[in-house]
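Q: Structure for this?
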Amino acid sequence: MKKVLIVDDSPTIRKLLGYALRRKSYMTEEAEDGLDAMEKLSDSQIDLIIVDLNMPNMDGISFVKNLRSGYYNLDVPVIMLTTTSDSELKEEAYGAGINMFLTKPIKPEVLLDKIETLLGGGV
Amino acid sequence: MEENIIEREEMKEIVEEFVVEANELAEKAIQDIVAIENNPDDEIVNSIFRAVHTVKGTSSFLGFNTLSTLAHKSEDVLGMVRKGNLKPDRDVANVLLAALDLIRTLIEEIKETGAEKSDITAVTDSLELLKNPSREKLGKMLVMDSVVEVDDVHVALNKQEGGEEKKLGELLVEDKVMTQGQLKDYLKKQKTQPHKEESTIRIDVRKLDELMNLAGELVLGKNRLILLNNMVKKGGAKNNVLDNLADITNYMELVTNELQLSVMRARLVPISKLFNKVPRLVRDLAGEFGKEVELEMEGEETELDRSLIESLHDPLIHIIRNSVDHGIETPEERARKGKPRKGQLTLKAYNEGNNVIIEVFDDGKGINVEAVKKKAQEKGLMGEAELAALSTRDAMNLVFVAGLSTAAKVSNVSGRGVGMDVVRNNVEKMNGQVSIDSEEGRWTRLTLRLPLTLAIMRALIVKVLDELFAIPLNTVTELVKLKEGLIKSVEKKEVLVLRDKVIPVVDLAKVFTGQAPEVEDRYLVICNVGEKTVGVKARAVEGQEEVVIKPLGTFLGNIKGVGGATIRGDGKAILILDMSALIDLFSAQNANRKIA
């Protein structure tokens, strides 16, 4: 089973995505901000990350920058899921190394489709 | 949301989580807005922005579009503040606070009914007005309060631009689109919205661990009892069975006491939950009454039972209103008296034994004791001699008697026909006490004394007919042993004359069954709730006991005059009387009889 890390400061969003993902037989791990996500990454094998943009402590873009460089240097696929549709931020996020930029709200099945695409179809 | 991806039960859980989360975010943001108005700080502005942003994102995800729109508009304004394009002055803060209040209302609606009901156009219009640089302060506030339409404001603004020198408010009143009273009425309506008790609680993991630990100890005790039971059954070790039993009993007593304390502690929440709302309130009140107030709060970490925190909300707000409205003088008046222009309001909470004390202190004009006495005499509450014999302190505490508010001018908030008597009744309902102390011209201090918890209390166990009842001990003032002829009949009602006071006699049997019993009652329990004193007939008095209050459940929960039940040492359940409700019930029955 593939494991998805959900990084969002809203417990509601984490719960919502968690339910949807587990229904499709994904395992899930949750983190409440970028910093927390960094710790979770050191603890377990993650196959895909869904990350919010605006979070306390460490925001989504800084998180992805950290993820893609230096100590971590991981190429795990990242979906940025945010309420912002600001094109500058979107560009910045892609520059930082995300694989997909999606805006909230999103239907769970749409998100699940995208996840499957990124993971190459196999669960 | 599609049913096949997220099931209904899960959705319900998610919405519950959302309600808790969004409420916390909104409450935090409200506190922060009050803080930035006094002291603009980038980090705080950021934190408000993030909170509102999260509410927007989450609510849109769950399909709460009204909430999401409102949060979105608020976020836009906050974004301008964050970028330094908008100064977070009083007007901006007012609109943002109104928006957050509405956000909380919507969340409440979602919690109660699952749907959003409130109309947000008035508030979103005001938010839009803020984004417009040529905004007019008063107009915005009025639109926010739905007193006038945005168009009306624009008409008046155009007049001003055309050279009219009158102020916007004057123009609007001139145009007959509003009266001064309308605004006040609307504010009043907002402030009297009922306060609902929350039914979930967040608990410190350490407290939970402590409970788990004690539960473990309890299991050990149970095991020892089983062992002992087996030993007795087998007939072995006869000699030390009693010693063993005594030992286990001691152990169980220790553990259960500790468990009881822990559970009680788990229900305690810091009073900051209540105090946090005070800066906002004081700020609004000071603005409304033209006062300058410096607020100081101490002991916010003091803990209190959460149900008490909730019941304390209204009385505390009332006391603070009184202090700002009637206590603290206007800056001009203070300057004349040689006091600093800014009045001092201090809230203090601390523990004293098994009580929590809350003090509200203001350095305002204090209480005119002579005026209170005069009023009491006018109202015919006390004679001249009686008043003369009263100590200054006791005379001051007459302000808690209905109809004795001494404020010369009735104001919008404090003078709603609700006086300090209501505060006292509410506090006494919580088994608490309230008292006042003051030095005229200098200061007033109100002191609330509350029990740590409502779950356990001391009660007097009495027998009425053949049933036992528990009367909360804090209401009992004395016991009178009945003798032939002591109870007299006045207008067919039974009364007792006790030291020149006429006390109505309550026959519980009659109140509950409507029939007079054929038993001779030997005692009269004199009970005092608020200003009412009654004597309750009892056949016997069993004594004082510490009782654990158990709610009666939905079938029996609404019996008037019964506050709950408790289980005594012998395993029998008895009812606990709610004296306040009982006195009301008794008065009502008496009134009915008079008419018939």
